[in-house]
Amino acid sequence: MELEQRVEILEREIDVLKGEIQQTLLAVQANLSDKPESRSRWRRRAWVLALLNILLSITLFTNIRFYTSDTPSGVGPALVPWLRGFWVALAFVWLLLQMYPLALLLDQEEGQSREVAWRNAAAFFASNPGLTLALTVVVLVTAVISALFPSFWFVTIVVLVAVVGVNEAVRWLRLYKQRT
Question: How far apart are CA 15 and CA 64, in angstroms?
């Protein structure tokens, strides 16, 4: 008797869950665009972005090369390492932007898609602000250490991986302790 009641309760919960999933899928479908993007417009944007990237890469790497040579004229010798670090950091950020967000710019043609992307980004930040800020700080600290002390980059990364591993192990131990 009790088993039959549990089965009935589970069947009702599954029906409710089916309805919620169906509503979610319909909401996602409403946010998707139906019309395909024209190829000529995409090609024009792609060529403009490619030209901008080439110009930016020439500028960044020329400045890095300029400040890695002997002390440039008109610049104090104490300022050269800071300028070199600045340009290397700027090039690093530029390379990070090449991996993912810049490619997404080509897909964000329509205003509705752009709004969905901003809404998703805001929702992720609102749901995990501490994690987002912590990851940003970790990446920036690692970049600064790598720029100032290039021989210690390996040690820094090993320490960061160890910290993440220890945190995950502690989390698993807590879950195991709760279950026993």
Answer: 62
